[in-house]
Each structure stands twice: as structure tokens, then as C-alpha cells.
Specification:
The structure is a homotetramer of 304-residue chains. With 304 residues, chain A is an alpha/beta fold. The first copy, chain A, is built from six helices and 17 strands. The first copy, chain A, has a nine-stranded mixed β-sheet with strand order 14-15-16-13-9-12-11-10-17. An eight-stranded mixed β-sheet of chain A has the order 2-3-4-1-5-8-7-6, covered by helices on one side. Chain A starts with a strand and ends with a helix. Chains A and B meet through strand 17 of A and strand 17 of B.
Chain lengths: 304, 304, 304, 304
């Protein structure tokens, strides 16, 4: 039945323990497991075993990201469609990483590694599933509900958009076009889940991560996140504001390795029958930072 | 590819003009058309032609509700599955109501009239689709984003849940069970759209409407809605609170004909792979009104 | 220079340890001292030694409340004016209670015990006074900023209002009058501090406490307070709503002895040159509970 | 009994009609009168005749600001104290400006013109004073509650602070000191009204206005203000954030003449017995913009 959502992101980090400290105490995720090379984390409101993997490396960035599919048959089905599209695939066998079943991996037209998977251990949300309270009693830091989306950069956004819409059946909620309407410079994509994006791309070098975003509940929680980041002396790149694109409320900041993070709230509900919203590049500033109305240099340059 | 969302509700009202005044000036919908018997309305953030139809009648209630399906082929497909389930269907021809294409109608195990449709005229959100602002400049009243869900009553919630999960492939996000776990007394169902419910049932007489809900953005907008209702002397049944079920923020009130309305905000994102959350009937008060922790008499009795 | 603010309330409680547990873990105050009969507590944002005193007793209620005056000379000055008004006064000597200096005590026309004081030990807010963060890192429960006001009942609101406005130079922000405008049934009074009330009275039996209120920051914090009370199974009498009077956002609930508490947010800023706002008794429901528009029986009857 | 609050600010503007359009349609004030040179405006929640005066001039800036005193006798009293402090005063006669009675004018040690007044016509808040609703039905733009404070620049903050604390009996809530603690570079002052500031100074050239601030209710209203400014293409200098000093939530932007405005929400309650909070200049970035933690160049340079 198809792709459900972004399920996990594996980030490369320079100092594993410093990163675990940041993602647990400041972001507020929980460590659910460790193996030789990786630490596995989960947000309080997620049901599956983990959504974030930290892996020690010499340079920061995105090792891979993965989408969860609804049925185990979907794996084989999508594997074929990916091959037909012209990307090579390979199977990642069960047990390669903690808690995970088999996955299909491929390289996107933008050079990023994508996996599809169905099987993963189930831990359940921290509030349980029997007469649950609305939020857990003890949380730390920003305490987001979940991993929300990733934004990547790439040279050819037409191709990668085609990959996601035609092969994986995602829907493009919004796009940014050059003023002559000839080149796509931003693409926002989501599975059938109402979210304005599970994954997005802006034009830039291939293989790079722009940011990984975590979902917080509302505009006050964005303020709380900003306050927590200042108290902990974490660099904030973009102070609280609204996106024109997605309408979401947001702040951007950096993990200890320089990977950009976002705390993202709100945003509309969208569907596969909604026409794609178009932004023209002359309005890209307003589209991305609705109040500032221009990009800061770091926003385009700081990629991992 | 299946059911996308609740698309419309047709409400029976006693005084059409008084109802139009209420749904436009207090709720804040826009009239998009009228025919001899009906007035058609749309919320500012909806894309399709209308989501609410008011129809003059001798008694209030729900004339029908309808789900939009993603592909036109879905109609025939679901028609067969509904027949196989044992419900009779009939086609509603294009042009029966304004802006709508053909629909498949059936009677639910609870006696309610349900339609499925794909075709409907497109008007677009009030903010447009080219470099849109996040909200329209001029709104009236509560100004919800959209029709969010309906809650109906029925005798046999096991059957109607089976209908929606097996025939229409909805997912049950939550259920309320008697303490002995033998009888389902509440059932919350959603399509593949992340919403905690498009439609829900609580045990009660067949064919009745409990409420139709409109989505507002956040807890401050729930307060604003309550303030507007008081200023306009609209009866509020349940003042601002949180649901345990769905975690949503809410108020309940009545339209001029006695149909219950809700302004609903927030609520979690859910998916078809999430296990159904269970509430036991001894906690039903907390499940429905998390702060009050008990039902008021009117909440069970006032049905239309 | 006069009265600055409500400074403390001494509540009678039935079970001291149970009460301390409630006021520290659910309300979120800090214990700052104990003597043989009493426990002293302080909110995180208060500067003085304590604002709440719990005293073991056979019946709940208000032992005394006290206003802090700006200058030590004010004590003698007010003492004379109180005597001239016709109330007897007595000095409470320094050291009678922890951290406190000398006080002047009198009995109000409504039978309540009022103290005025200037001297009290200084502890400072939890965030400190050098480059402070906006909120403390570790809080528990509702974590109000401060004791905000008390509401008392009494037979003769004209006299007690005259006492506070003419003797203590408070200002009446709002009043509730019978429809014939002859009898005052509600009176809201504040010192020169912008608050809509430090102290209020509604008509009822003398000597009784209606509630003691703690200040929370905003409407989301009222929701958080309500969520915390439900999780801890504390009885909520009035779920989140707005007052017409003061415009404040509010919930009411009970401490383990039956003393009513309020978490109160927002409210306007007012001044001594503002005319008193008048509510007529036929609108008292709306004045007190803006959304419900009527009083519940318990609200008038549950007094301690 | 003393100074109550900032009562009005008279701003010099380049194009009167363009400014009136901005202050009425974008800020949302109401025009209450005009004379040959000036337009008078009032916020919906203010009680007095006006709080903002726009005056056509060749250069932007602050013509004068004024504090309202509680009693008419206060005028003469403060007049003497100002003279004793060494500033010359002069009387502004009743009728010089619309709606105003007599005032005492003096020049501050920083070269700004300050007036004190008691008499001013009374218009009342838009919601009335009999059974009022909490907010008016029809507002435009940002719709602040009131003029909140002004921030001015000056060379000698020690002297001007002494003037306000010793002569006008204001209280200094916070100050910014050079790291050696020898020079005051920021001073925040308030009357007996609980507000963290009616007036503030930062070190800079004499006679200049840094900004005039309007009070909005909460963090969501700061977001709404920012959205409105973007829709109307008003330049925003500082997007939504929190101040360390005052804890207030804020945005900064410019009127059509280049006078800086602020929409300010929240902030703590403070009193004359609270010790002054100290910020050291090495933390001035965090003190002023808690999330950004550094000043932007324009913030120091754009003065009118």
C-alpha cells in the first residue's frame, strides 16, 4: 500500500558521546540501543524502535535516511520500480542494525542513500496505549514528538522529484521555480500522511544534508526550544519564525558536529489531490523565512 | 488508491437563513453556491468546492456524509467491496448537487448514509497557490481551516468498525471497550492522512449525529472560538478542554437547529501501522474530557 | 508610600505532610522553612522569603493574609488610619513566624485577619539577578510565578471595599452590583501594581476563603496546569476558561484540605485613575465564567 | 501620589497621511482627533483620549514623551523637585494640544523633552465599562492594547537614571553595566505599575529615539504581528524572539519615517522593593536578544 513516512535518519557525527549528550539532554530523545559503531534514539511519541541513528565518522552528514512502507510486500514492489527507474538497489539484511528487519537501499539521483523498510521492532510511545495521558511525565530538553523530515541538497531537483512522485508515489506539496519557470530550485514531498513534507530538496551540491527536523507541538514550544538552546549555549542560526512554505513555525540550530537541526511546529494538512503550491525564486526569501524575507548566507552554505 | 478524507457533511437545519447566518458569520465559512433546497459552504483553507451542505428539513441531523477517494477508479472498486460486505449501494448521478460529480451511496450498519466520490469542482484555498500568505486577510468568526470529522452514534460499533477498516481500509486509531473488554462503545477511524479521526462512533441510537467538527489551529484559537461564541450568545456545551482520546483541544456548542458542533485543534499524527489505543469504559470520562473526567448528561442525550 | 501587593497567605490544612506534598509536587512551590506548626513556601519567581504558609488545623481556611508595604514607616501610618476607620489593630512581633519582621494585624469588616508588613527576609528569584535566564531549569508541577490574589466572602462588601480604598488606598478595578444597583455583591481590589486584583470579595458568609490563586504565564500554561491536575487526580472544579471580570484565563481546583486554588493567567493592566468596571448581577455568570455564563452550585457553596 | 505610567509619545513623521495609514491600518490604532499640525491616536484598550501623537516634521524622532501623574497636585510637587534637581521646567498650557490639560515640561539630562500631566479627556476602552467583553469585535492590524514604553539613547545614563529614580520616584528594574562595573550602558525604569519598563535608555547619542513599543497580549500575537507586517511589506528588523531583559516577547520594525516600533508581549511583574537586576556588557547580546545572543549593527545605528 505504499510509503507511510520518514522512518529514520542516520547522521554522521564527530564525537559520539558529545552527540549523545546533545541529542538526549538538549533535544530530549531517549537512547534505545547501542552497537559498536552506532547509538540508536527515539522520541517519546514515536512507536517504532528508533528514528535517529548516530554514527561516528570523520565528517558530519547523512549516512542514510529511510522510509517505512506499510506492507512487507511493498519492499519487493518498490525494488522493481526503483530498478525500472534506473537506480540500482541492494538489500540490507536484517540484523545489520539494531531492531531493524530487511531493507532495500538505493542511491537517489542526488547521490543520497535511501532505504525502504517495513520491519522494525516496536517499543511504543512513552505514554502507553491503554488509557494514555497526553504527554509523558518526565521529559528532558526540547522533547519533540518525532523526527519530522529531512531537507537535502542536490543538483537535479526535477529528477529526484520524479523519482519520489513516480516511483515512491509521494506527492509534491510545494515547489520553488526560477522566475522563468524553467528550473526547479526547491521541492517538498510527502507520503500519504497529511504532513507538508517528509523530505525536501533545495538546489545545491549533491549528497549533502541541509537539516534534520524534529516536530514540536506549537509556537510556544518553539519558544521553549529556543530558550533551552540559549541556556545550553547551542548556536541558533534562525531564531523563531514562520515558513511561508508549509506555514510551519520553526527554529534552526546546529548539533555538535555541525549538522543543522530544526524544531518545526504546525504546518497545514495536505493531500495527494491538492495542486502543488508554487513559489517563484524572487520570493524565496519570504517562502523560507516569512518574516525576514531573505536568506542569510549561512543557510545556503552550511551543509554537511 | 483509496479513501483520502472526509470530504463533506450535509446537515439538516430547521431555518435555512438563520443557519447560513450562523455558519458564515459565527463559524466563518463562505457560501459558494445555492440550489433550491441547499446552501453550500467552504472553509478558507479547503481546496474543493464545498465541505458543508445545509439543507432545510423538519428535523435536524445528518442527511449524509461523504469521503473523497483519490482516483476515479476507486469508486467502482469500493462499490464492489461494499456490496460484498452486504450493504446495498446506489449511484448518485453527477449534477444532483452543485459542483459534485458522481457518487456511490450506501447505508452504514448504523443506518447513516455514506457517499464516496472523487469528482468535485475545485475552488482552491483563499490564500491561493502562488507565493501564498499563511492566512487570508479577511476572515469572519471562528474561521476554521476545514471540516475535520463527524461523530455518529450507533448500536453495533463492531460491525461499523469492520466496515470501515475492512471495506474502506480506514485505520482505527482508538477504541473504547467495556471493562470486560467484550463490547466496543467507542471507535475512532481515519484514512491515510495522519489525522486521529475522520469519523468516529460512540454507542447510542442508530442514524444519529453527535457532532460535526471544524479544525482550528491551536489552543489560543480554541479560546478565541469560545470568546466569539459567548459574544454571539451561542450555547457552549463544553468549554475549552482537552480530549484524552486524540489529545485534541476542543469546545462543543450547538448550531441554531441543535446540531452539535466542535472546534477541534491539534491531536497527534497517526498511521495505519500504529496499534489501536484502548480506553476502558471506566475511564471514558477522562478519555473524552481529560480535565472534567466525567461526561455531562447532555453529551450523551443531545443527538440529532 | 503604601501597599505594594499581596505578600502572603497562611492556609489552614488538615494534614500537613499531604499538603506539603501537594503544594510542592503538584503546585510546584519550594519549601523554604518549617517551624513547629507551619511550613513556609515560595514560588520560583518571588523575591521574598515566602508567600504561602501552611498551618495544621482542625478545619481548612485562611488563617491570615498579608500585604507588603513599601516603607517601614508605612506600618505606623496605616495602623493609625485603620484605628481611625474603627478597626482594632495589634502588633505581631518579629520572630513570630520564620523570616518575617514586625506586622500590624487587624480584623476586616468581613471578619478576616489581615496583616501589613514591610520587613521580610530576602531569598531572590530562582533565576538570580545577574544575567538571569527567563525561567529556572528545574521546576516541578504547575510551577506558578507567584501567589497572585485571594478571593474571600463577606456580608458587607460596601464596608470592606471602603476599608481597602480609603484606608489602604487600594483601587477597585471592578464591582458586581445587584440589578437595582443598590447592593455590591462583588468587589475586586488592587494596589499600585497594575494587577487587576490582589484581593477580591464576593457576597457570602463572613470569614470564609473562596480561593487562593497562583499566577501562570499564559493560556498554554493553564492547559498544562489542567493536564498536571488530571494526571495527579486532583479534583478540578472549573476546567480552563476565561473570566469576564479581569479577562484572566483560569482553572479552579482543590487542595487536599478542600481549600480552593486557582491557576490564573493574563488579565489586563489597570491603574488608580481607571473608572471601576461594573457588572450587573444578571450577567454575573458571564462575568465570572465568560464561556459557561452561569455559576455552578459548588462555586458558591464550597468555602473554607 | 506620583507617576502612574507613560501616557503619550509625540512622534515626528515625514509624511503625515502615510503615517496615519500605517498607524491605523497596520498597527491598528484609532484616530481620535486632528489639529493643524498633528493627528492623535488611541489603542483600543486605553482609557485616556490619546497615547500617540503624530506630528509632521522634516526629520523623524521623538518630539516629546509624557508621564501621567495620579493627582493634579503632583504636577506642582514634581515641578519643584525637577527644579531642585537642576533642570528648568515650563508649563504647557491647557489647550495646546487636543484633549490635554496643563503639563509641566522639562529637558532630561539626555536632551529629550519630558512632560508630566494629570488632566486629559477620557474616552474609555473600546469594550466599555459595563459588562464588557474581553476584546472588541472589530480591530485592524496588530491591534495592540496600549502604548507600552519608549527606549531612548543618551550619553549619561547615571544622571538620567538618578533623575527618574530620585525626582520622579521610578524604580530601576534592570541595568546593563560595563564589565568593570563602572559605566551604566543600559537602564530600565518603571513607575508603580508592575511593568518592567515605562521608559528605558541605552548608551548612545543624546536626544535620540530608539523605539516606541506597543503591548500585545502573548507570543501568538507576536507571531500575528509579524505575519501582518510581512503581508504589508513593512520592514522587520528583528523577527520574533525573547528579551533576556524583561523576559518580554518581541519584534522590531520601522514606521514609514524610520521610527523604530516594537510589538512587546509578556514580561514579568516587578516592584519598587525588588533589587535591580544587573546585566554585564559581555552578555548584552543575550540580554537584549536572548536567542540571537548578539546585536545586529542596525540595532545600535538606526536612531531617529
Amino acid at each position: 500500500m505504499g510509503v507511510m513516512r520518514i522512518g529514520r535518519a542516520e547522521l554522521r557525527v564527530l564525537d559520539l558521546e558529545k552527540s549523545v549528550d546533545y541529542y538526549t539532554n538538549i533535544i530530549g530523545l531517549n537512547v534505545v540501543g547501542r552497537d559498536e559503531e552506532r547509538v540508536y534514539l527515539k522520541a517519546w511519541d514515536e512507536w517504532d524502535h528508533h528514528s535517529l541513528i548516530l554514527r561516528k565518522a570523520d565528517a558530519p552528514g547523512l549516512e542514510h535516511m529511510a522510509f517505512k512502507v506499510e506492507k512487507s510486500d511493498d519492499l519487493e514492489n518498490f525494488e522493481k520500480r526503483i530498478e525500472q527507474f534506473g537506480c540500482t538497489t541492494r538489500r540490507i539484511s536484517k540484523g545489520t542494525r539494531l531492531g531493524e528487519g530487511e531493507a532495500v537501499r538505493c542511491e537517489l539521483p542526488t547521490g543520497h542513500q535511501l532505504e525502504l523498510y517495513h520491519e522494525i521492532e516496536y517499543l511504543g510511545p512513552e505514554v502507553g496505549t491503554l488509557n494514555p495521558h497526553p504527554w509523558p511525565e518526565n521529559t528532558r530538553g526540547i522533547a519533540p514528538h518525532r523526527l519530522d523530515h529531512c531537507l537535502l541538497t542536490g543538483e537535479d531537483l526535477e529528477s529526484v522529484t520524479k523519482f519520489f512522485t513516480e516511483v515512491l508515489d509521494l506527492h509534491q506539496s510545494e515547489k520553488i521555480m526560477t522566475v522563468d519557470e524553467e528550473v526547479m530550485v526547491g521541492s517538498f514531498l510527502h507520503a500519504r500522511n497529511g504532513k507538508p513534507h517528509d523530505l525536501a530538496f533545495i538546489k545545491g551540491p549533491d549528497k549533502k544534508l541541509h537539516h534534520a527536523a524534529f516536530f514540536v507541538n506549537n509556537w510556544y514550544d518553539v519558544l521553549k526550544a529556543a530558550d533551552i538552546l540559549t541556556r545550553n549555549e547551542v548556536q541558533i542560526e534562525v531564531t523563531p519564525t514562520r515558513h511561508g512554505i508549509t506555514r510551519g513555525e520553526t527554529i534552526y540550530f546546529f548539533d555538535p558536529s555541525g549538522n543543522r537541526n530544526e524544531a518545526f511546529a504546525n504546518g497545514y494538512i495536505t493531500y495527494h489531490d491538492f495542486p502543488t503550491i508554487t513559489w517563484t525564486e524572487d520570493k524565496i526569501g519570504q517562502g523560507i523565512f516569512y518574516h525576514r524575507r531573505e536568506l542569510m548566507e549561512s543557510f545556503s552554505l552550511a551543509l554537511t
